[in-house]
Amino acid sequence: MTAESTSSEATFSETMFWDEAARGRLVFPRCADCAFLRWPAAGVCPECLGRGFAWEEVETTGTVWSYAVYHRAYAGHLKARIPYNVALVELDCGVRLLSTLVDVPEGTDPIGARVRARFQAVGEHPSVPVFIAEDS
Amino acid sequence: MAAALAGSARLGGAIRGRTAVVAVGNSEQGTIPGISSDELAVEGLRITLAESGIDKAEIDGLITCKSYGGFGIDTEIGRLAGLNPAYSATLDYGTCNFSLHLACAVIDAGLASVVAIVYGTNQRSAGNKFSHPLGRQDEASVYGFLNVAGPAAMAFRRHQMLYGTTEADLAEISVSQRRYAVDNPLAIFRDPMTVDDYLAAPYLVAPLRRADLCMISDGAACMIVARADRAAELTEKPVHVMGIAQQTGLRDRQNADQWMRPWIQQVAERIYPAAGIDRDGIDALYIQDPTSIWVLQMLEYYGFVDPGGVGEAFRSGAIGHGGRLPLNTNGGQLSEAYMWGFLHLCEAVRQLRGDAGERQIDGLTTAQYCSTFGFMKAASTILSTEAP
């Protein structure tokens, strides 16, 4: 795992997550006191209640917990995407991340599948994490 | 990472029989234009007082529930309803069991003796689409994870993988509740529905269909809860609160399997000792059901069916319409009306008092209501016509 502090600012904005995703990296705020990865990002640690943290790049591999396929657009901007899937990926670093699965072979159940992140456009967002089979 | 759940040092039986529901009431449900949410809440109170014959002056506690648009605040509803109660409060997620439990605690603490719990909403007329992301993270909007149907669908897929549950099994829940709703004049959805009808409908968020999801509606509901001695003065048919229990899962997705809501199990372990009544002693069961998945999950966590056994439990006649254990005899939120789960309690009280009209099921002494506040908390109450 590459440990790299990318910010020491006292910010808990998730902007860093999306900015780094646009550069092809997954980063989360790691607690300076107890090393817990805080997600959702927060200026206080839910484990030790400490404040200090640094954004750190993590491995992009994980396991699919489950997924759902939207056939209805619950907001106007989603109409062009239906049907689309949303998945919850349990990253090896411990964070549970919402994303979407791409290149899922027809007729296979992705629950429990090993996956890794790729960075590509989803809707209006030009480069965000999506997940593909780890061995693809 | 597994986040710990708080344990509990509470005493079993702490509130057993010390409070009772003395009245329930509700407005029509559906689309009710031309009236505000708070006015609807007062309308619920007016109907309940009128039907029960209880004088407004008896009310010394008011618990309201925040409604869509930020309405439903006790200070505003108290003014509209002409009340200066000894105690008032608003819960952000007040309906379901949570308002009732607060009322019991308030009464037991001596802050009030007759508490009106009111809720009104005009969210259907006001245009709530329930399309906001449910998580706190922006991921939800980036990936289009909108509506409770998303996490519920994921939880069901996971359940299917673990236990082999089929869509036809899941259908049994909605079909049974629709059958009850056919006999319920208050229900919004009353057209008969078979398992084949269910399966023929398209997916909304696969593997869930329209019939797995409730529809929001306008309406009001009210419940009046009193200290046991006051209850005996106010009604000949008090429904005693035998036990209450809660548990939260506030750490959200930091909890493992959060959308399967495993912390409901903690409530299941606490509620029966709290009430001094076993699961086998429950005559009618009520489960809050904004999605059918909530029914599936709670039937299993509370031990009424084995994991994966939900379809067979309905088909064999163990549970549901015409079965040995009646479940959501009003049609639930899936067929009757949303009302944040308030109407399950109204129905349970009516059934226990023999006031359920064509839907009346004979011989009921106890009822249990199991509910949740989304992915945040769970609660249950056991009610009985017999004082401890």
Structural commentary:
The complex is a heterodimer of chains A (136) and B (388). With 136 residues, chain A is mostly beta strands. Chain A is 6% helix and 37% strand. In chain A, the strands form 2 sheets. A 5-stranded antiparallel sheet of chain A has the order 5-4-3-6-7. The radius of gyration of chain A is 16 Å and the shape is globular. The N terminus of chain A is likely disordered. Chain B has 388 residues and is an alpha/beta fold. Chain B has 14 helices and 11 strands. In chain B, α1 crosses α2 and α7 crosses α11. Chains A and B meet through β3, β4 and β5 of A and α5, α6 and β5 of B.
SSE topology string of chain B: EHEHEHEHHHHHEEEHEHEHHHHEE
Q: Work out the strand percent of chain A.
A: 35-45%
Strands ordered across the widest β-sheet of chain A: 5-4-3-6-7
List segments of chain B where confidence is low: pLDDT < 50 over at least 5 consecutive residues: none
| Overall geometric form of chain A | globular
